Structures are given as structure tokens and as C-alpha cells.
Amino acid sequence: MPLVEHRLSPRVPVTLDALLEEPIQPATIVRLRNLSRDGAYAQTSVPIPRHRRVWIHLRVPGTRKPGVVTARIVRADANGVGLEFDDYAAETTALLDKLLTLAGEPANVSSF
Question: Residue 53 and residue 47: Cα distance in Å, rounded?
Fold first, then answer.
């Protein structure tokens, strides 16, 4: 049976380090592999169950302070997790828009 696509906006390929925080385990560095205004795919070796609420700390390259986006895990596989953002505050939207604008530029990796 084919997978049904539920994304509201297109995802853009990225290579972006982020800090993933969740209530049960210590925070861990993940690498975002795609990003949209509505979600992302985070590559990680740490197993995180579906439906768990998490906080993603994202930093625009060249800035010091990360923004935090709340999300829930909607998919988990051996390579990472699919995230659906559920924080639509104006500053969150501005952060995601900035990251998506930069996504097409060559060096879009930000380290924590």
C-alpha cells in the first residue's frame, strides 16, 4: 500500500545541526535532513517513540542564540525521526522562514 503524503508545505533538503530535547532522555544533537514550515526529518541514533513532544533548538547560521520550536514525533525509523511542528508563534515562523531561505545556500550547517 503506498504511503499517503500529509505534508502541508514542501520540505527542503538541509544539513543543519540542532539540539533535540525531550522529557525522558538527555538532550542530543541531531542533524536535520529536510525542513519545512510544518516539520522536519532529524537524523539521530537515539530511539524516540512516536507521539512524544520534543523541543528543537535551531540556530540560524551566523547567530548566537538558538530559537526553540516545539514538535511531536510523527514517524520513527532506524535512521531518525519525522517531526511535526506545533508552534506557530510569529518568532517561530520567522526563524523557520529564515532557515528555509538559507537552505539553498552552500554552507547551511550550524553547530551546537
Answer: 14
pLDDT band at 103 (very low <50, low <70, confident <90, very high): confident
Going by DSSP bridges, is the β-strand pair 39-43/80-85 parallel, antiparallel, or unpaired?
A: antiparallel
List residues bridging with 54 in a β-sheet. 71
Cβ atoms of 41 and 14 within 8 Å: the answer is no
The CA–CA distances, whole Å, from 106 to 63, 76, 83 equal: 17, 28, 24
| Domains detected in the chain | 12-102 (2.40.10.220)
Q: Is it the case that residue 5 has pLDDT exceeding 70? A: no
Question: What three-state secondary structure class fits 1?
Answer: coil
110 — pLDDT class (breaks 50, 70, 90) = low
d(CA 101, CA 84): 19
Check if the beta carbon of residue 79 is closer than 8 Å to that of residue 42. no
